[in-house]
Input
Amino acid sequence: DAKTTQPPSMDCAEGRAANLPCNHSTISGNEYVYWYRQIHSQGPQYIIHGLKNNETNEMASLIITEDRKSSTLILPHATLRDTAVYYCIVPNTDKLIFGTGTRLQVFP
Amino acid sequence: DAGITQSPRHKVTETGTPVTLRCHQTENHRYMYWYRQDPGHGLRLIHYSYGVKDTDKGEVSDGYSVSRSKTEDFLLTLESATSSQTSVYFCAGSGGLGTEAFFGQGTRLTVV
Output
């Protein structure tokens, strides 16, 4: 799997956009970028994934740079319930390997 | 949880005893995964399966075995539980690369 680098923690004010960066400089042309999050001790939850183009769904937007070496997950209006650990992964095999992610704290 | 059910949800067992955790899915996922999660380590892949009777090791497979005799069930076995295997275990299923993975709610295992 392509190695990903994420900041260990970030803060965001409630109502503001949360922008979570991920570096994946060794990504190959056919590898997807996935984002998951884990709220407290629950099972991880899929958020979004993309290959080349920017993607948006009801939860978030994913912005992938043109060279695909980095991406940003955007939560447009963060709420307290978005406090979680966010994982960026780039699997290139059947294995699904998670790193340590970014702990996002949304404060009132 | 999108059709991923783990059982039991909580278990306390003694050192040296065998333990089997079950993951059941109803979505016909081809791939299934077992992870453990410990404080400070995030999710670590134990074993995964890419089809019935097809399994492979993950990052931390020592002391664990798995079996998948049918699509719906993926079993994780600790042949002789040790205190270091006290952890929260998560199961997941997916259709493979390009698809999303769905996770169960976890099994909290305590080995005393």
In short: Chain B has no helices and eleven strands. Residues 17 and 84 of chain B are 13 Å apart (CA to CA).
